[in-house]
Amino acid sequence: MLDWWEKNFATCELGDRRLNERAMSIGYALSLGFGKALSEIFSSGTVLKRAYEFLLTQKWNFQG
């Protein structure tokens, strides 16, 4: 699954270094825990909450 992570997250550019790093870390964790519940993938409740908050961010303006 690391190939999937590299293809989808390793080169992301969201306009802010911190957002890029957050996206990459979330993507990496998801690729390592593929098929598991999110509560199993993320090490603590705080990390899980931050991942959910990141995914709900309304800032994204994807050109498709």
From TrEMBL:
Transmembrane residue ranges: none
InterPro entries xrefs: RNaseH-like_sf, TN5-like_N_sf, Transposase_Tn5-like_N
Stretches assigned to the Transposase Tn5-like N-terminal domain: 3-56
SUPFAM superfamilies xrefs: Ribonuclease H-like
Name of this chain's protein: Transposase Tn5-like N-terminal domain-containing protein
Organism (species): Dendronalium phyllosphericum CENA369
